[in-house]
Amino acid sequence: ELMKANFTRNLIQLSLAIALLATRQPATAQSCTPLGDQTTYGSSNTWIGYVYQGINFNTYKGYVNEGNAGSPAFDQNFGGNQVSYSTNGCSIYTDTFSVRYKLSKTFADGNYTFTVGGDDGYRLSLDGGATWIINKWTDQSYVTTSTTIHLNGSYNMVLEYYEKYVNNRISFNVVSE
């Protein structure tokens, strides 16, 4: 009789558990809205970086800013390896992501040395992305590339970056010669 009572009690508990699970609302992913329009260029030495999950600018997540009124230079590691990194919009996971930085800048007549570094790929354009004056679009450990070019006037600079796995870093600097 005791076994029958235990069996009945266990059956009732199991039935209640199943009923609770059946009525439970499914978990919903937290939604977020990516801010920024992906086309506007930064100004006053402040880049707008449009951030994407995926190494080929796959899923737009939001934007970040780099540089400041005094200088467009920056060195970014996105909070570390394989972590969640916040943008103005949605967070990304710091593996397999990409960023397209944009900045409109006016240069006085002269020679300028641009230095870009990255782990993994990076490339720099002065004509809105039509051509690349620096192009190291490959999986690699952190490395820098420099080039000197004569400029005079306003330029729509685009700096593209992707991170494949583990370590991530992008840096930019420009100096007048």
| Shape, per Cα inertia axes | globular
Q: What is the CA-CA span between the terminal residues?
A: 96 Å
Give average pLDDT, whole number: 89
Structural class: mainly beta
Percent helix among the residues?
10-25%
Unreliable segments of 5+ consecutive residues: 16-29
User: What's the number of extended β-strand segments?
Assistant: 11
Order of helices and strands: HEEEEEEEEEEE
* Major sheet: 9 strands, antiparallel
Helix segment tally? 1
Q: Indicate the proportion of strand residues.
A: over 45%
Radius of gyration: 25 Å
Question: What is the gist of this entry?
Answer:
With 177 residues, this protein is mainly beta.
Topology:
Layout: H1 2-23, E1 47-53, E2 59-66, E3 74-76, E4 84-85, E5 88-89, E6 92-93, E7 97-119, E8 122-125, E9 134-136, E10 143-163, E11 169-176
Antiparallel strand pairs: 1-2, 1-7, 2-5, 3-11, 4-6, 7-10, 7-11, 8-9, 8-10
Task: Using brief descriptors, characterize the structure shown.
177 residues, mainly beta, 9-stranded antiparallel beta sheet, 11 strands
Detailed description of the structure:
This protein is mainly β and 177 residues long. The chain has one helix spanning 2-23, and strands at residues 47-53, 59-66, 74-76, 84-85, 88-89, 92-93, 97-119, 122-125, 134-136, 143-163, 169-176. The strands form two sheets. Strands 1, 2, 3, 5, 7, 8, 9, 10 and 11 form a nine-stranded antiparallel β-sheet that branches. The N and C termini lie far apart (96 Å).
